[in-house]
Amino acid sequence: MASIDLNNVLDKAWADKSLPEILAAPVAALKGVSDRSGELLYEALGIKTIADLASLPYARWAQALADLEAAGK
Q1: DSSP of 33-57, one letter per residue?
Q2: d(C-alpha 41, C-alpha 53), whole Å
Q3: Integer CA distances (angstroms), 7 to 10, 48, 51, in order
């Protein structure tokens, strides 16, 4: 089972929310993502929520490629 310290990845206002609330949150709830960046993600790729970002095929493909590189393949 995966775990993550929510205080390290979310703005303070979101760190104590439930997982369904976090996934429905705007991408700006992620630490380091500004409201404007969230707007640009929506304009460019239709991403409104953290769940949208997580399910973005391009992000999954990029992560898979990075994982292969890290594994030395």
Answers
A1: --HHHHHHHHHHH---BHHHHHT-H
A2: 9
A3: 6, 21, 18
Closest CA to 27 of 19, 17, 16, 35: 35
CA distance 67 to 49: 24
CB–CB of 27/53 below 8 Å? yes
* pLDDT single digits (tens) 11-50: 999 999 999 999 999 999 999 999 999 999 999 999 999 9
Model pTM? 0.84
- Contacts of residue 42, defined as CB under 8 A and 6 or more positions apart, other chains included, come to 48
